[in-house]
Every structure is written in C-alpha cells, then in structure tokens.
Queue: 2 jobs
Job 1
Amino acid sequence: MQLLDPTNEIQPALRPGTKRPASLAGLTIGFLDIAKTRGDVFLDSLQQQFAALGLVVKRYAKPTYAHPAPIALQQQIALDCDVVVEALAD
Amino acid sequence: MHPETGYIAFVKEDCPTCQLIVPALTQLATAQSPLIIYSQDTLEFLEPVAAAQRIYDSTLETSFRHAIETVPTLLKIENGQETSRIIGWSKPEWQAFTQQPTLGQDLPEWRPGCGAKNEDPQFKDQLMLRYGNVKLTARTIEVSDAEDEIEACFARGWSDGFPIVPPTPLRVYRMLQGTTRSAEEILGHLPHNHAPVSIEKVAINAVMAGCKPEYLPVVIAAVEGACDPKYGLRAFMASTWFSAPVVVVSGPITKKIGMESGFSAFGAGNRANATIGRALNLVVRNVGEVKPGAVARSTFGNPGRYSFCFAENENDTAWQSIAQERGVPLGESAVTLLTGDGVQPIGDERSRTPESLVISLAMGLKAVYHHKWNLDADVILAVSPEHSRVFENAGWSKAMLRDALESKLQLETKTMIKGVGGCTEGLDPAYAAANPIVSKFLPGGIQLIRVGSNAGLYSAVISCWPSGGESGTQPVTRLIGT
C-alpha cells in the first residue's frame, strides 16, 4: 500500500532507529534472552563484561523464541530499563 | 490493434441493449469496414463475433481514454482518429452511421444505452488517478501488505492519538475534488518551522481526520486563518497555557455540509464539526510540527486540541453572526478562528429581563483566569437561543449586550491587589493605585456567539489565550471559497 506523506517532509521517509545513548554509565540495562539455544551463554558472557565495567544488568527471558515477547514482559522491560540487549544465538 | 479506418464499439454484457444488438455487431464485424469491439465485462456474449475482433477492456483504460460514458457507443475512425460517435441503439442512426442499410433490420427501432462501467463511481476516480492527468506531489510512503495501515500511521507519529484514515493517493485525489483550487497552491506558512502548507497537504490531513470532500473548503479557510501571523498560533500553542484553536463556522455552508449548531454543537457526534476541527489540528501537528512536549508546551493541554469546531446557530435570530460582525456579507460563509481553554457553564433559569440576565453573564465572565486577573484578552461568550431570546425580545442587539457586559466588567483594583484576602496572587499595589478601575478583558474583546439547542437557559464562557491584541492572538476570519 502507498500512503501520501502528511508532514512537511523535512524528516527522512526512512525512519531512523532509536537514538543510542552516548554512554551506558548510570543506565539500567536489560538483557532479554529470547530462549533460543545458547543465547544464555552469550548473555552470561556479556553480563560478566558489563559487570567488570560497573554496569547494572537485569535479566529477562521470553517463554519461547517462536513468538513475540508477551505484552506484560515488554511493559516490564520498558518500565525497568533504559536500554535492552536482545540475544540471538545458534 | 485499432483500425486506421473503421469502427470501434464499446459494450458490456451487463447492458441489455448491448446484448440485444449482438446481431448488428456481428453483421458489422463481417462487413468491409474493420470493427473492433471492446467489452467492459465479459467476452462470452459476443461469441458470434470473430475472436480477433473482441477485446476485453479489463483495466477499462481504453474506455477511459475514449471518454466512454454510455454503452453501447460506436466510434467512427478515419486516418486513425475518431471523427464521430453514436450512443445507445437507434436503428436508423446506426444504419446511416455505418452506411449499412440492412444493419440490425430485425432489431427494435430504438433502445437506450446503459452507463459505462468506467463511469461507475467505484472505478472512475481510480481510472483518473491511474491514467488521467493527476499530479500529486507529496512524498509516497510504502507500507508493506503485512503491516496494518492504521498502525503504520500511528507508528509514523501522524496521529493525534485517535485512529486516522490512511491517506492513500485515491482518498487524497477524491478529497481534492472538494475544491476548485489547485493542489499545488500554497496557503501560507505554519509555525514553528514556517513550513509551506499546500492544498494537497491540507487534503492529506483532511483525509486522515475523516473529512468528506465537501468539507475541504472549510478546512482550507481554517488553515489560511491559522497561517495569518495575527492569529498567533505559534504563541498560544507553544505556551504553558491551555488554549486550543477554536473554529467557528458561519453562513449557509454549515447547513449544506450538515454541521451542528444546536444539540451538542461543541461535541460529540457530528462528523463535520469533529473532522474539520481535527483536520486543522492535524495540519498544525504534521506540517507545522507542533507536537506535545516539543513545540507544544501546554501544562495540561486541552480536549479542544483534538477538535473544537462548531457552527453558529443562525436560526430565528435578529443577531448578526460573528462573521457578519467581522465584515462578512450576509449570505457568505466564513470561518472565524479564536482560541479557547475549555467550556465553563453559566446557568440562569430565572432571569426574564436583559438587566437581570446580563448580571449573571458578567459574574460568569468575571470568574475567568483568576478573580484578581485583568488581561488584554478576548473571551468567548456562547449564548444559547433561550438566553439570546431574553435579549432579542427586549430589542437588545449583540452590540448592546457587549456594552452592558463591559460596563459590568469594570473592576475595582483595590480588591485585586497582591495579598488582599490572604491570597498572594494579585496586582502590584502601584499599578492598582494608578489604575483604580480596570477592564476585565480587552475592550471589544467579548466575542458573542449564539450556539446550542433550543432548550436550556444556559450560556458558557470559553476563555481565550490570556494575551490578546496585537502582541498576542487576535481573532481571524476567512471567507470560505470553493
């Protein structure tokens, strides 16, 4: 489907991704394990490296990688965290 | 494909006359002059005609390009160009046109044709958009088939919070049929970025708001008014105060497009009221980039920022409309833009004389903002028909009522000084000493609008942005064109 842009077209048509923070210092970082095999291994390793930098990490996990995260889990992560790392591994 | 010299017929099976004349078409197809027959639906009913001479105009492009309005239509082609055409079935006419004296001799003398399929409203606009000389210049946004188009509009930040109608090129083209003005025309520039506002952009936002094409001239007039620096849109939308644009529509167009001036004129339920006001706010949001938390800094906001638009009640009254008061001739339609914070009721069910009722109205007006505030501001006083009748029956014009209200809204500043009554808010003592009496509002700033249903001895105050006049926001009126 085609839509006609209702704006002044100053912004690019391709929406940019969410702005990345300049630093993780002082931010709450969420790790979302999507429940795919060995994703936890990757996140464990990452958590160790983050801890060495003095960063706070909260862990979350999807029930299954086959479906989107349940709304309640999405809302909890949004309430708790400033940034999220979502792991995918095989 | 087309004969250099010969005939082209346009038919459809859905037309009984087209079915009736198949023998004549078959006869013509086997005559010396070449014939091509275009069917707008099926080819089966034309089976007596040789397959090479039957074409299914599946896209209706050929019918559109030949501007076929009726089937059957028979074109005469000479040197590759159409030189004449006949429509419907008239035996003598077809015989003369084709120079075939025995053409369809067993058929009735005359039968009317049917409307061509390309003229069907569900196809006509699509054909015009696809094959006509339509120029839409707005950037095209591709939304994948898997994506919900309404959610896609939310995701792009185009919505005021309610679902919007996705602005497809077809819907925008249809919206633009509501005006005689060019889609490319620039109406003005909107804050905060002075972005030019074209009629096409207005039409896109009017589609999203849910407008009908016949509302578009009203939306255009409202946007023209909003672009006028006198209106001060940037000032009041960027303010921490409450105000929203208030769109008052006056004149015969209100009845033509079914606007509500009576029951629940302020909302909700009338499509024209709701969507015209919403379209203006969406233009301000999307073209002007005035969005909450960014440029729009209102502490509370206001439900009117979704839509605050209504028609004046001009039924059975000797009072002039606000548009007439502002110079619009009787019989013309106009939009007047004001600012408004909310609706504060004034009930008075007992006054039957102007002298009594004006006291109630003045008391209601006096309460606006703060008892100790007098401001160079306009204020809207919405007067119901039952209240206006009290004044009209006694021969009071709007001007007389305004004068009476202003005289009752001369305030003694000694009661408004900081600290008086234990309240720190108030006037500076030196100012109060130099100005023992002040006007509550800008002189001439009480905007009287007759609106509402015939039952209810009520009026309503809608306070305007507190800084009026040349340094703030002023009412703006624009004629509604075509």
Job 2
Amino acid sequence: MLPIMTLWKPDPTFYPSPRDAAAAPQETRAYVAAFDRSGRRPDALAVLDTESGEVIGWTDLPNTGDELHHFGWNACSSALCPSAPHPHIERRYLIVPGLRSSRIHVYDTKDRISPELVKVIEPEELGERAGYSRPHTVHCGPEGIYVSALGGYGQEGPGGIAILDHTKFEVLGRWEVDRGPQYLAYDFWWHINHDVLVTSEWGTPSMIENGVVGELLLGRKYGHKLHFWDLRKRRHVQEVDLGDQYQMVLELRPAHDPTKTYGFAGVVTSVEDLSASVWMWHQENGRWAVRKVIDIPAEPAPAELLPDVLKPFGAVPPLVTDIALSVDDRFLYVSAWGTGEIKQFDVSDPFAPVETGSLRIGGIVGRRPHPSEPGLPLAGGPQMVEVSRDGSRVYLTNSLYGAWDDQFYPDGVGAWAAKIHTADFTFDQRFFPHGDDFRGLRPHQVRLQGGDASSDSYCYP
Amino acid sequence: MSLTAVLLLGAFHGLNPAMGWLFAVARGLQERSRDRMLQALPIIALGHLASVGLVALVAGVTGSMVTGTALAFGSGVLLVGFGLWRLLSRRHFRWVGMRLSLPQLAAWSFLMSSAHGAGLMLLPMLVSPGAHHHGNAGLTVTLLHTLAMFVTAGVIAIIVYESAGLRILRVAWINLDRIWAIALIGAGVFTIAAYTIT
C-alpha cells in the first residue's frame, strides 16, 4: 500500500507560472538513469550531489535488462491547473520505465537519498490494458500520468500513449481515441492551456533495438513527422511532415508560457547531407506549420577515424539527440552527440534563433576531455541535456541508447556527466562524475530534484 | 443563526480556489483580459447554483413525502457517508481541457460543486424543524448561499488578478477539501443527534 499523499498546503515544488518556477531555489540532487549494456547486471538510479558531482545515492533495479532511458515525476505544477485542481498531492515518486523490458517502476524519493522501489508495473499490465510496449517519456498532466511507448503489445506498432493514475499507479488504458494516420511514436508533450498534445516519431522496436538499420535509414523509414492532437478529445488533428530526408524527430520542447503555441523539435539527421536540425512548430491560420530554424552541418573526417557505420560517408554527423528549452523560454540547448558539442541558442524570437554559446566535449572524432581532467579523452558526447528551473545550470550525460552507442562509439562510450554554468557558458570544474563513479553503467536522462525544465507544465502565464 | 450559516458556507465555497475563482482568473490571464475573467464569474456561480439548488429541490420533495425525523436521519447519514468518502478517497475531480465555452464552464462548475458535495452541507438547515413552515426555504437558502459564494469568489478573483498574483496559491491554498470532509461528517452527526435528542 502506498502512503496517502495528502498535504495541508500545495507541494512547495509546484509553481503556478514559469516565471515563479524560474525563481525556485537551486536544486541539490540530480537523479540519473543508468543502465547496463550487457543486461547482466541490474540498471540503477544514481543520485548525484549537484554541487560536487559525487554519487551520493544508488538504487539497483530489481531485475536485469530493463534499459532505463527516460523517466518522470508522479505529479508536477500542472496539479495547480484550475480545471482539475489537486495541489495537495506530493511530488515524490519517480516513474521509471524500462525501455527494453517494458516494466514501469515507481520509486519513492521522499526522506531518503537513494530512491526506494514501491511498485513495478509488469509489461503484461501495460500491454493488456493499453496495448503498448517499450515505455519511454513520462509526463504528469490532466488525466494522471501519461507515458509514451514505442511499440505495440506483442507487435511492432502502433506506438502511442498510455495513461496511469497518479495515486495507485495502475495502467488505466490507451490514451488515443482516434489516432488517425499516426503509427510511429517517441516523445510527446502539450500546450496545456490550448488542449493540444504533440507527438514525435522514432521507430518501432525492431527498427531500434539492434542499432540503427542502414537500409531503413537510407530508405527514409524512420520517423519524420509531428502529430498534433486534441488533448481533451484524444483525437488526432493534424500530421505535419518535415520531409522524409529528416530522419528521427525526437525531443519535443513546447514553450512553457501557456499563452504561446510554439515549440521546438530536434531531428537527428538528414540522409541528404548528414546534417542535424531543430524545427519550430507554430500556428498559421489555425493550422499547424513547421519551419527549420537551426541547421548543424556534418563535419568531414578521415575514414580511418570513423566507426564502420560512418566510413562510407567520410564525415561525422552532429546527431542532435536531445534539446532543452529553459523555463523562461529564452534559451534552447542543443546537444550534438556525434560531433561532441553542446550549443546554446537565444530563442527569444523562436523564428530566428541566435547561437550564443558552444562547448565541445567527447565526440566521435574529437574525443575532447573535460577541463577538470585535460588528459582524459572522452567518448560519447553531450546527449541528454537538462536545464535547472532558474536556467543557470545545464546538466549533460553521454550515453544515447545501448545498441546505438556501440555503433558510433565501438571502442566504448564510457560514462560521464557534466554541468555547465550558463552565465558564462563554461563547464563546472568540480562536477564531473565519470568512469567508475557509474559502476560500469551508462548514464542517460537526468531529473532534478523538485523539477526541471522538462518536467512541469504551467496553466498560468 | 441559520441565515448566517448559509452565508458563511457560501463564502467558504467562494473562497475555495477549486470552486471556480481560479478558473476565472486563469481565463483572464490567458488573454490578458479582465473582461474574460469577469464574464466567467457569474457563469461559475450559475453552475454552483444549479448544484446546490438540485440538493434543495430533492430535499424539499423528499421532505413532503416522509416525516421530518426520517428526512433528518437520511440527510445525516448521507452527510456522514459522503464526508467519509471525501476524507478517505484519493480521487479528485478531473475535467480535461482548459478551453471551455461559457456553457461548458457552467457545466464544469456544476460538476465540480456536485463532486464536492457543496449543496449537502445545506441539508441540516433545509431539514431543520423551522424550515417546514416556509415554503420557499429551499429557494431562499440556495439563492443566498450562491450570492455569498459569488461575491466572495468575485472579490478574491479581482484582488488576485489585479494585485496579489497567483504566487499566493503556494502559501494560501490550504487543503480546504479535507476541512470540508470533516465538516460534512460533523454536520451529519449533528443533524442526527439533534433529532435523536428532541
């Protein structure tokens, strides 16, 4: 039985508006999903001290082979929304899906450093009730907890969104009432005050679980569309095709300002020139439209320095695998996992981002070190990127996805996390957990205690 | 005394952010329009009126068919039961969607008030021995209660919209639902006790 989570006052980590959230106190802990590529040891949640970078907590999962990836909170600032207010619930549980195992774990973080397992939702429950497998993104919202999933239950697709209730953590069912032409799934989020939900596309389980499939990529079979939905009626409204050369539309970052209806989507690569791009969606005469607003070219490199998968191309693709938008909607952070670069853009005008900063670390060819250990070449690159609520700190980890790490960093992707101070856009010299700190596991998504730039939605401007 | 209680209960509902003023403020803030907020307030009050009025109507009809004692007992049991459910259940009212037309907003308010058991608390007053002598007791109670709710919600909405800001929610939004649940149980027990003693 889970403890009753009723408070006398709203959870102090809930904020009515993005402006209020940006004034939140500095985070002290970061939760990091870490997974064992071999599947022989359990994956884990590592807890980092955000000041020193030390691993201060660690919780092994109960099973092996889960492949932790993304995760999220049971409740967030959307609990303050006026249509279905329930602000006296606690933000204390992390909902942690195993992307490969399809198990969904619920971890309690209250009054303890290392999270404690309170529930496991088995793949059968997710499958039988919602029809999905390979759970991925988690968001707390008006109907409870929303979890996107890449695959169907016992079949390739369609992928979609499952709903969980946020007190007992039971799978309530499939979110979609009418999915229209949507088949591929990956990320999702919403414009909560406009009753709009947006989804993106990666691929079905067989397209990703054994690595990127060259024929599928060159055949332009990975996802290249955005889908817009009616959040209330759960119906597909419009699909927007970016063009089939733009393969793998992954992370979605809608504006936090609830009066706005634009957002950013990252595209991993273009099969025409291996460039990566960031797109902005917006409304135009009542319809959804997209526009490419950031283009990052591939960097030529001698074939002998490249992994087999890239040798024919003679270039390193930037591989934009994650993007993050600051809570004040001013800065967009773009990680280029292939070239080993993190870029900062001023997106005050979302139609015309201006690059304001860049740092290099890792990279397929560059192998640049962290400034605190200049003699240590690093594999992997900036991958998951998370921004603190006040926008002053950015956290990075270096692993993308087991099978894909192995293709692009065949001599080992390693394990590291880094922190950037955004004021002068420099690496924090102290914060650099790496190597054995992660006990042989690969770090993926970071969630900051109390919330971060991709955890909460707000109903008040 | 009864009139004061009716007004205070109305004010209590008006005070509760979940009962509607917060939705009105959100509508206003979304389009930076005080008019949009002010327009929502009577609509929300209308939904509340319908919810409370329904309880008064049912109590009135039932009261004409059964004895005063039976009605009081029934009301008391209903109050205690509903209060316990509100206290122990972790479910909360869910309405998905923020873009509501005015009729939808009235429906939202009706459902929210009903799920809250807003009208139930008026039962002790509606079934009190004195109430039988006034044919329009139910109507009067409903109107006065809703008026108090409307005025309170309106004043708070304007203050929050114009000056206080929503940050106040973080400190001032105490768990009124829990207080409400306990009050329902108390009122139920009182209603039963009053008749058992007399």
